[in-house]
Recover the amino acids of this structure.
């Protein structure tokens, strides 16, 4: 089945558009489409815009008429709030309504909550594009998409005139006594079970083609035949990091407005076109004079203020001109005497004008004058290629009049959680489940340093479900970070799926460290582009520690930073610590005391790799050496290396 449904996801939210909130609904809808909820769908466009009717209308028309998307899913703006105008915008765009889809969403949502009666979904088509509006919440938008998912692909097929797909769907339904009004497409549920039980009783099996091609080729069914020990050799942390960084290819360059370049690395030298200051400038509020006149009386011949052109009056012997800080020094003057070193001798009748002053101290030539170009000379390199742009650097760009800069782009990182036990944080906790904290932690860690992040969702411990999630992640990102599925359990299937379905090369899968021993690094080619995969352990602390050790340096190097390694300092233990047979990265807080050269490190307590609390206040990872038969404990006062967790 060659036709792919091009999907657009449009989030309508003032707060998300302004960067005040994370667009969880939009990210979740993208992951749901990628995982097969909309059969044959692929997200081609995503945008987050404010609740403005004209802006929503303009975007929808562009996506329908210019981008030629087959399906547009909106989330947000369908309620009763004064800013909820998505339905009104959609009504102005669509040519034909699809009330059945809207009715389905309302009917099924009412089974979940009576407040669904306040929702105002609008569905319809414009040309060959189907538009559906979903609620703004992550939970509500996902539920409504699932409610209508069985019918959406067939609706698109009909709009597009894809006869083969339409006929195949009709034939499959007729074979089981179905009716065209109750069509659906089989698809892989992102949480491991089928969607073909949604609100009707007509079941059909895979229609062939696309659905069959989505199945993973990895055979993980022979549980008893799995290795009891890792077939991969154990390597050191330094060797693992060196391997990861050896595959870090610098991202392509792009041009950005100067104001948007914070946190990027320059891909060009910045050369000053003008001198700074562009004229001899006064350092003080005072009087421009001839130094050779010495002290004594001066006639005041006018003034020079900052931001104004100097008067044509030239300073000559026996006179002076009043100047402000930063103002041009008038021609002829070779010194500035500060106001504090003068006294008023004579003024005009109304006291508004100084006529004569007395210089109390003999001035020196060049006193309190910034010469032309003394800070920056014309043609001077003010910022070098490879410079990380911070607030001071942006200020310097503004100073020399640079409004656009060529920078190294940043890698996009997809975060994928794996595990049957995981559920989204906003859901009531189900029996036998835990909430997925890894994704939130890692996405926040990367966003803290300005790296673009994709939420790739949660993949169940099923090869086909994992394959679907991996395909989506690879289509969106340069680097894939997974958590879970890399140990030796029967459900740890990441490596088999990578090697079997993507022909990935596993560079390492065991590291001599605690926590994070089963950390895996792999590379593969997807559509001619190299993808880097870091498979991290599922325990929350292990995931954060290994992200700090490997992912942050990798992202820095791909972003063009030469100083890509983590910052390390020396720290002194405040108490004795038992050490492990493996090198350990121990979470600690740091305290500096007056007169002491190095900080004191305090352990955050229980260091279990599942105990995220040990990271909540941590400022550093103490690099503890492995135990030996002779040394099993580090004494209080021992000095160790420490990786800073904040830079």
């Amino acid at each position: 089945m060659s036709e792919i449904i091009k999907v657009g996801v449009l989030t309508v939210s003032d707060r998300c558009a302004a960067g005040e909130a994370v667009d969880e609904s939009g990210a979740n809808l993208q992951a749901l489409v990628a995982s097969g909820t909309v059969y044959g769908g692929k997200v081609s466009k995503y945008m987050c815009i404010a609740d403005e009717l004209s802006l929503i209308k303009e975007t929808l028309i562009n996506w329908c008429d210019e981008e030629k998307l087959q399906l547009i899913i909106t989330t947000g703006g369908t309620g009763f709030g004064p800013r909820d105008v998505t339905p009104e915008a959609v009504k102005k765009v669509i040519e034909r309504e699809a009330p059945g889809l809207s009715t389905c969403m309302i009917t099924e949502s009412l089974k979940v909550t009576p407040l669904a009666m306040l929702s105002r979904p609008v569905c319809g088509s414009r040309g060959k594009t189907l538009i559906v509006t979903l609620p703004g919440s992550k939970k509500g938008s996902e539920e409504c998409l699932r409610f209508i998912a069985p019918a959406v692909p067939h609706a698109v097929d009909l709009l597009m005139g894809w006869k083969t797909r339409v006929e195949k769907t009709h034939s499959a339904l007729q074979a089981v006594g179905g009716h065209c009004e109750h069509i659906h497409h089989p698809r892989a549920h992102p949480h491991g079970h089928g969607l073909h039980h949604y609100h009707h009783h007509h079941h059909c099996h895979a229609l062939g083609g696309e659905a069959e091609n989505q199945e993973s080729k990895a055979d993980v069914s022979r549980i008893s035949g799995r290795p009891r020990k890792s077939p991969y050799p154990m390597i050191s942390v330094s060797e693992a990091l060196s391997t990861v960084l050896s595959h870090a290819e610098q991202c392509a360059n792009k041009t950005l407005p100067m104001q948007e370049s914070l946190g990027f690395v320059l891909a060009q030298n910045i050369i000053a076109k003008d001198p700074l200051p562009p004229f001899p400038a006064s350092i003080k509020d005072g009087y421009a004079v001839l130094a050779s006149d010495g002290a004594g009386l001066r006639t005041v011949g006018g003034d020079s203020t900052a931001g104004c052109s100097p008067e044509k009056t030239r300073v000559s012997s026996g006179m002076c001109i009043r100047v402000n800080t930063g103002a041009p020094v008038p021609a002829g003057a070779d010194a500035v005497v500060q106001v504090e070193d003068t006294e008023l001798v004579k003024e005009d009748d109304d006291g508004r004008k100084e006529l004569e002053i007395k210089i109390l101290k003999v001035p020196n030539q060049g006193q309190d004058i910034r010469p032309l170009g003394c800070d920056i000379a014309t043609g001077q390199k003010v910022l070098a290629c490879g410079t990380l742009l911070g607030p001071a650097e942006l200020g310097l760009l503004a100073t020399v009049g640079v409004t656009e800069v060529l920078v190294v782009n940043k890698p996009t990182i997809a975060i994928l959680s794996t595990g049957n036990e995981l559920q989204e944080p906003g859901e009531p906790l189900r029996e036998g489940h835990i909430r997925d904290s890894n994704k939130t932690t890692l996405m926040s860690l990367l966003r803290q340093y300005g790296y673009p992040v994709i939420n790739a969702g949660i993949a169940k411990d099923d090869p086909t479900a994992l394959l679907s999630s991996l395909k989506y992640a690879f289509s969106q990102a340069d680097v894939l970070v997974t958590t879970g599925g890399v140990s030796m359990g029967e459900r740890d299937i990441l490596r088999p799926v990578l090697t079997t379905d993507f022909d990935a090369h596993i560079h390492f899968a065991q590291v001599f460290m605690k926590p994070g021993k089963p950390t895996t690094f792999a590379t593969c080619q997807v559509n001619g582009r190299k993808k880097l995969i870091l498979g991290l352990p599922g325990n929350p602390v292990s995931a954060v520690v290994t992200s700090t050790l490997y992912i942050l340096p990798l992202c820095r190097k791909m972003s063009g930073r030469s100083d890509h390694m983590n910052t390390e300092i020396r720290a002194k233990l405040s108490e004795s610590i038992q050490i492990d047979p493996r090198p350990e990265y121990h979470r600690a807080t740091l305290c500096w005391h007056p007169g002491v050269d190095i900080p004191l490190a305090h352990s955050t307590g229980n260091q279990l790799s599942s105990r995220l609390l040990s990271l909540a206040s941590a400022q550093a990872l103490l690099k503890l050496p492995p135990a030996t038969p002779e040394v099993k404990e580090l004494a209080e006062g021992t000095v160790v290396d420490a990786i800073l967790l904040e830079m």
Remarks:
- The chain has five domains: 5-182, 237-250+410-558, 253-275+375-408, 281-370, 568-644.
